[in-house]
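User: Predict the complex with flavin-adenine dinucleotide.
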Amino acid sequence: MAQFHTLSIKNIHRETAQCITLSFNIPEQLKQTFSFKAGQYITLKTTINGESIRRDYSLCSSPKSGDITVAVKEVEGGTFSKYANNSLKIGDTLDVAEPKGRFTFEPLATATRTIAAFAAGSGITPVLSIAKTLLEEEPNSTFVLVYGNKTTQDTIFLNELLALHHTYKERFVIQFLFSQAQEPDALFGRIEKSTVNLIVKNRYKHVIIDAFYLCGP
Ligand SMILES: Cc1cc2nc3c(=O)[nH]c(=O)nc-3n(C[C@H](O)[C@H](O)[C@H](O)COP(=O)(O)OP(=O)(O)OC[C@H]3O[C@@H](n4cnc5c(N)ncnc54)[C@H](O)[C@@H]3O)c2cc1C
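Assistant: Here is the predicted structure with flavin-adenine dinucleotide placed in the model:
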């Protein structure tokens, strides 16, 4: 049985018209309980219109940051995502279960490897945590991200990803795809077999990709 802890919201940031990030205040005595591996998720529980609601959200912060941050994308007709995007305020409380999940990445400072990830929409959340962890903690490794969205406007973490690329240069390669917009340097369409072939068999054919992470909405 998941054990929940009542945590207050420390910050809310609007990422796109349909997505917010929220972070929590973690009391000192719960810091250990809320330590996590990159890629893990938390379960949020609250009562909406008299109904108890529980939903899972991947942590997008890196374990080293000490932050517990999730991104919630509003889905049409969605109970919790609509409530989070439109009603939650800083200082409100939610019941939060400790991080869990096996979609993880564990850094090894001495490793020299290439990790590739294919993400679409809100699937970027655990991948961002994993990418930041590799970039910060494995100085000889490279991360290749293929990230699909409809347009730049609904691309969650667009600015943060571009800033990471600016910092880490060729250690953090990003290939954007947009299905409803033509953008310079981006591919048009959705992630499909030809996208995977382009990255793995063409651009990176001389590189051994040590692990792949896939995450969709
Ligand atoms: C491990 C994990 C990690 C996740 N990480 C993230 C994340 O990082 N970010 C994120 O945004 N989401 C994430 N999700 C998804 C998230 O848990 C929620 O499922 C999502 O936010 C929708 O919840 P909701 O309450 O808004 O929608 P819900 O109320 O659950 O509705 C979902 C959809 O079902 C439809 N629906 C509801 N009831 C019915 C019905 N009776 N008949 C037909 N259709 C119906 C709704 O219209 C809506 O389109 C993750 C899920 C998992 C399992």
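The radius of gyration is 18 Å.
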